[in-house]
Every structure is written in structure tokens, then in C-alpha cells.
Design goal:
The protein is of the alpha+beta class and 141 residues long. It has 5 helices and 4 strands, in the order H-E-H-E-E-H-H-H-E. The chain has helices at residues 12-20, 55-72, 106-113, 116-119, 123-128; strands spanning 27-35, 76-85, 94-103, 129-137. A 4-stranded antiparallel sheet has the order 2-3-1-4. The longest helix is centred in the middle third of the chain and has 18 residues, at 55-72. It is globular, with a radius of gyration of 15 Å.
Length: 141
Amino acid sequence: MFDTQTYLHPSRAAGAAFIMRGIAGEVTMLNLLRFRAEADYSSHPELAQTVPISGAAAYDKYIAHTLPFLHESGGDIVFLGKGGPFLTGPDHEYWDMVMLVRHRDTETFLTFADNKAYLAGSGHRTAALEDSRLLPLSDWG
């Protein structure tokens, strides 16, 4: 038996816990992403394409929309690659894409994530994803 719940957005409790961690300095976000076969724009019809597209194509649109705002905030994508099944981990779990996004600090991440112009195109992400995980990482030292 395994967890069948999907995760697309952080909960209020998770957001509060992230802030309370008090991460000093850079924060890197580990993104594990599983795409829908076909993007679902029902929650964001204003962003829907004239013909159906894959979840991966919708996520490409999300990245293209997001990069200017990410760079403006001082952040950057430091790794973007193909995922797959775990070598060590649940046999049933796989991720299509893995991404590491670096932010200068928690404050600039939160400002970026709340940018209204960025949020206007974030529906491409929602349309693209079947499931995701987001893990904030900080320096061990």
C-alpha cells in the first residue's frame, strides 16, 4: 500500500514551517515533477492552448514564463534533468523531471513566489503536473 495523494502546492502549515526553519543564506529547492499525459487547463482556461498539449509541453511554457521573474529575483535553475524510478526508494514511484532552483535567501524566494506577474502564468505548472514534491535545501555547515 502506498500514498495516493498528490501534491501540487504547499499547504499553509508547510509554508509556515518553511519560514520558521529560519534558513540563513541561499536556499535551493529540489523539485520532483510528474507530468500529466495531457495538460489540464480547466483551472486556468485563460492559459489554455488552442490544441491539446502534453504536461511536459505545458511545463516548458511554465519555465519560459518563470525564468525572467526568477532571474530578476536573483535566482536561477542550477540543474534540470530527466528523472525516472528510484534506485533506492519505492518501486512504484517515479519522477519525469528533477530540478534544482537556487534562491539568494528565503525572503527573495517568498517575494518571487508572491510576484503577481509570475503568478499570472503559474497555471501552466498546475496544468502540467500530475504530482510533485518541493524540498527546500540549505547548506549543511
